[in-house]
Structure formats: structure tokens, C-alpha cells
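Hello again,

I reread your note about wanting to compare the complex against the isolated chains. To keep things tidy I'm splitting this into two emails, and this first one only covers the full assembly. Below are the input lines as submitted, including protein chains and any nucleic acid or small-molecule components. They are followed by the predicted structure of everything together. The single-chain runs will come separately.
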Amino acid sequence: MRNIVIIGGGAAGLSAAAALAGEARVTLLEAEDALSYHSSGRSAAAFVPGYGNRLTQALIAAGRGHFENNHLLSPRGMMLLAKAGEDATFEAEMAADTMTEITVEAALDMVPILNRDAVARVAVQKDVYDIDTDALLQGFTKCARANGAQIVTKARVTDIARDAYGWRVTAGEIYRADVIINAAGAWASEIAAMAGAQDIEITPNQRSVARVPAPEGYDVSGWPFLMGVDEQWYAKADAGAMIVSPAEEEPVPAGDAWAEDMVLAEGIARYEEMVTAQVSRMLSNWAGLRSFAPDRTFVLGADATMPSFIWCAGQGGNGIQTSPAAGRLIADVVLGRPPEIGTEIADALSPARFT
Ligand SMILES: Cc1cc2nc3c(=O)[nH]c(=O)nc-3n(C[C@H](O)[C@H](O)[C@H](O)COP(=O)(O)OP(=O)(O)OC[C@H]3O[C@@H](n4cnc5c(N)ncnc54)[C@H](O)[C@@H]3O)c2cc1C
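Full-complex prediction:
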């Protein structure tokens, strides 16, 4: 059995560990003292099959069975809201996500707080769900451990070298590996540089979320995911309260992300324009990093210059809903199996496209 070191204990690393454990000797190294401390613990937990480009959508579709078989999805639905003058973008997004236009009156029956003076057009999509993210990530962790994977927290990788015996990864202790999997999220380019792998710029972009009380007198639990056109803001029910995101995309250095009051306030204002219930206070807030490759497509597969260095990076805003399929693809690459997702998709996701 080959020794695999996975760097990063978020959705990317954990899904790869679950898919590989039992087939290889897996050690996962996570810098923080808890798994999923960064992006994977800070998502909006949405499963939106029509989100992202065709390759992302192929990954979402390929992993759907994992979510359904493990009862990780609950129906949410989505409602796209446009103001007057936003018709062209509204129609393009409605077509791209195969949504159905409904009247503002019909939308008000579903979400009574919509502001009929501001909302000009509405479209809905039923095929959108909430993900039980904790259960998903704990499921990967349990599966990996049950099949012999070693998961080490407080293990920040500080050096990667190669010698006649393979990789030598320093994270406090020295770990030997035949194959390294780079699942370091916002830090993926840093890890690649340490290993002397391809220079692919993975750029972290910050996105914030405010948790606010549900509008008084309303049970929001059955309301759809509300989305402004051009992703200017979104809001959805969250355990008796609501989350509202400014949906910003702010390039930042890799690090522990914190929401800025001004950015949250601007996002809340864009949401408030479309509803009649104003936000009285904030219960909590957070920010996370969505990390993109230059072409905004995932980077999954063997490095073009070092075949034993495997990229699992650039998941942007889709790393949770794609994780079961991404983990399986990484396992196929490491184990030399034909990719279950198909060669055309696997090739298009491969880091080789950057050579
Ligand atoms: C606000 C927000 C909303 C989102 N909503 C959704 C959504 O609804 N649906 C969806 O599918 N996706 C969503 N996403 C995107 C999703 O959260 C990310 O794509 C996903 O979490 C990325 O997972 P990851 O494992 O690559 O990164 P991370 O979870 O950040 O994991 C990378 C890990 O690598 C570790 N690491 C880095 N450097 C080292 C080192 N030197 N040594 C050891 N460990 C290291 C880090 O500590 C970190 O834990 C959202 C993201 C944000 C910010």
C-alpha cells in the first residue's frame, strides 16, 4: 500500500481521505486544532445543482447520490428576485438555472415580506436544498478513520522536500509519503511552492454572512433561498433565524477571515430594499474564503511536473456540494483508476491545463 499525505482538513482533504482510506495508508495533516475550521466550517450549506460552470455542475451531479443516500439534504428551493431594469440579467440567470418565472403575487404567497414596490420579477427553482454540513464532514472523517486513516490536527506543514525515498513532509514531525494531496484551500499555492510544483495562482476571496433574527411573526423555515440577481446578496432561513450575505468577492491574503461591519451593512441594505421587514440587529456574523484558480474552475489531479503531487484546490463557492465527487476523482487519480466521472471532465479539471 502506498503512503499518502493529505494537507488540509476541510471538505477537500476529508473527502479525499474518506475515498482513499482502505486503499492506501492515509495521513491527513491539518494546521488548526480543529477540522473544518476555515472555509468548510463557514459556508451557506446550500446544494444548488445549477450553480457554477458545466464542470462544477458535473461534480455536483456525480456526488448527488452520496447526499441522498446519507440523508444529508432537506428541501429549500430558490427564489431569484429582480428590480425594475434588471431584466436582461434576470432572464439570463433564469435560463442558466432552468428556473420558472412566477408573478410577484405568487411570490408573496410564499414569502409575505417581499416588497412589492421594489420586486419587479421573480423566478423559482425547486431543485435546491440545505446540506447538513456537519453530518457530511463528520461522515467523511468517520469513514476515513474507520478505514485506518490517521488524522492529525495542530500539524502545520512548514517544509516539503523530495529525496530518493519519496516525499518528506515536515509538520512538527517528519511524515514520509509516496504521494502528497494538496487540499490546503486558500493556502494551496503556498503548499505547491513549498513542494516545487506548478505555479498555479489560487486566489482567496472573502465572503461574509450576517445571522439576523427572523422577521417578527413569521415562520421562515419553509421560505426558499432568496437571491438577488447578479448575486448581489442572498438570504435564507437558518435554524429559526436568517442568514444574509452581501455575497461580496473581495481578494484577500490567505488567513483567518473576519467580516467587516461596513460590508455586512451594505449587503443587509440590498436585502432590506427587497423586503418590508427591516433587520433590527445582528445575532452573529462570520466570513470565509472562496478560493479560485485563474479560470475559476476546480484544479483536481496530478501536477504536470510532479505526478506524485496531486492538486485538490480552487473549489471557490462550491467545495461542499462537490466534495463527494471531488474526493472520488482524487482517489481515482492517485490509484490510477479510470475516472468514474469520465475522462473528458477529469482532463478539463486537471492542472495540466495550466502548462
Ligand atoms: C460564505 C461562504 C459560503 C459558502 N457557501 C457554500 C455553499 O453553500 N455550498 C458549497 O458547496 N460551498 C460553499 N462555499 C464554499 C466552500 O465553503 C469551500 O469551497 C470549501 O469549504 C473549500 O474547502 P477546502 O477543504 O478546500 O478549504 P478549507 O475548508 O479552508 O480547508 C483547507 C484547510 O487546509 C489547512 N491548511 C492550510 N495550510 C496548511 C498547512 N501548511 N499545513 C496544514 N494544513 C494547512 C487549513 O487550516 C484549512 O483547514 C462557501 C464559502 C463561503 C466562504
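For quick reference: The domain at 3-59+132-201+294-354 is CATH 3.50.50.60 (FAD/NAD(P)-binding domain).

B.
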